[in-house]
Specification:
Layout (H helix, E strand, L loop, with lengths): L1 E4 L9 H11 L19 E3 L5 E4 L22 H4 L31 H11 L5 H12 L8 H10 L9 H10 L4
Antiparallel strand pairs: 1-3, 2-3
Helix pairs in contact: 1-3, 3-4, 4-5, 4-6, 5-6
Length: 182
């Protein structure tokens, strides 16, 4: 089985951050071989041109695909096939990319859970450390229509795996809630 982890999207999306968030949000500890994929901790993978990964796993399900030999023995793609391929284009002129927003739909009567807000912030990847991640989560949770208090967000961040133990949670939350209009 192969898990395709894409990285390097023009919109800043990061599949590796999402992959790690999947485990963190469920409270699962990562096996050693998954802890630092970018440094080569995974034993069998291919690296994509955009910096992503294809992680290859043995799978116990039915009708398995079986790798015979190794990727090192794979031959070069024949020119007749390569010349028939259509080059991939990242951007097509005149195409407008959808803009994703985290606005709550009108039909939704309750605010999103703090764990969902944290997932959005984590997947956006607009942070370079735990302090900025705390701020980004708190900034989203500070929406007046969500009704979260700074104390509730602080308590959540103390238990959230990606921010637990961070010593500046209170300051990050205070900063995010500072501009909140009540």
């Amino acid at each position: 089985m192969c898990i395709d982890i894409d990285i390097g999207f023009a919109d800043g999306g990061n599949g590796l951050a999402s992959f790690y968030a999947f485990f963190a949000q469920r409270g699962f500890a990562l096996p050693d071989y998954l802890q630092n994929i970018q440094a080569g901790s995974f034993p069998c993978y291919t690296k994509t041109p955009s910096g992503g990964f294809h992680l290859h796993f043995k799978y116990k399900g039915t009708k398995q695909y079986i790798l015979v030999e190794s990727f090192a023995h794979a031959p070069t793609l024949p020119a007749i096939i390569e010349n028939s391929l259509t080059p991939y284009q990242d951007e097509k002129p005149g195409v407008v990319k959808p803009h994703f927003t985290y606005e709550r739909p009108d039909w939704q009567k309750t605010p999103p859970l703090l764990s969902m807000i944290a997932q959005w912030a984590y997947e956006d990847g607009n942070f370079d450390g735990r302090n900025r991640l705390c701020f980004e989560i708190a900034r989203r949770a500070a929406r007046p229509d969500y009704g979260y208090t700074a104390t509730e967000v602080e308590d959540f961040l103390r238990s959230y795996p990606q921010t637990a133990g961070h010593k500046q949670i209170k300051d990050a939350v205070k900063s995010a809630f500072k501009g909140r209009k009540l």
